[in-house]
Amino acid sequence: MFDEPLSNLDAKLRVSMRVRLTELHRQLRHEGVSATMVYVTHDQIEAMTMGDRICVLNGGRIMQVDTPGNIYHHPRNKFVAGFIGNPAMNIMLLDIEPGTRGLRLADNLILPLNTRLSNLLEQYPHSSVWFGIRSEAIQLASQHDVSAFDAHITNVERMGNEDLLHFDIGEQHMILRINSSPDWAPLPGESIKVKFNLEAAFLFDKKHEENLA
């Protein structure tokens, strides 16, 4: 049983100890030793990199028990989706446009849904739904792409190998992740165009916040 054993270490030592503990666990299993480890942490990186299975808790209640890959790619509910991932998943409550199966991003902006997402709303009883999409599933688009959305950069976090662009579409605030480039350094106040990879998007029930998929 490990109860946040690395929480007081500096960042560099924490990384090396994560690797060492994982290697030790693998070595014990290879030698046939019963080596089940329960590791308690608030650090999602530790959970995702060290765990074979992860149990996500919220207020003492189990939200999901699954592999790291399924926790990330198939979150059971809105809490798990927003808790796992850095930056956190973009999640917003959007009205469903009657008849078109699109979602209203702003007063005059409709996000058309693909067949998969439209089918999830066929028997859906509410007029709005939680829409979730991760930062890597939003892409920059050409200024001439008529299917893309105009966006306004509000902040830029430069991480070295990548940049996190905070941007607004109407009143909706989102974050997208791009590889940094010496040829273009985006700045707050600039206008961009963005597209959404809806194959990687999620819909969550407005009331119960369960994944509709």
List keywords for this structure.
alpha+beta, Rossmann fold, OB fold (Dihydrolipoamide Acetyltransferase, E2P), 2 domains, 5-stranded antiparallel β-sheet, Maltose/maltodextrin transport ATP-binding protein MalK
Would you write up a description of this structure?
Residues 132-204 form the Transport-associated OB type domain. One of its GO terms (molecular function) is ATP hydrolysis activity. InterPro entries: ABC_transpr_MalK/UgpC-like, Mo/tungstate-bd_C_term_dom, NA-bd_OB-fold, P-loop_NTPase, Transp-assoc_OB_typ2. The chain has 213 residues and is of the alpha+beta class. The chain folds into two domains: 2-83, Rossmann fold; 90-204, Nucleic acid-binding proteins (OB fold (Dihydrolipoamide Acetyltransferase, E2P)). Helix content is 21%, strand content 36%. It has a five-stranded antiparallel β-sheet with strand order 7-6-5-8-14. Strands 9-13-10-11-12 form a five-stranded antiparallel β-sheet, with no helix packed on it. 19% of the residues are buried. The mean pLDDT is 94.
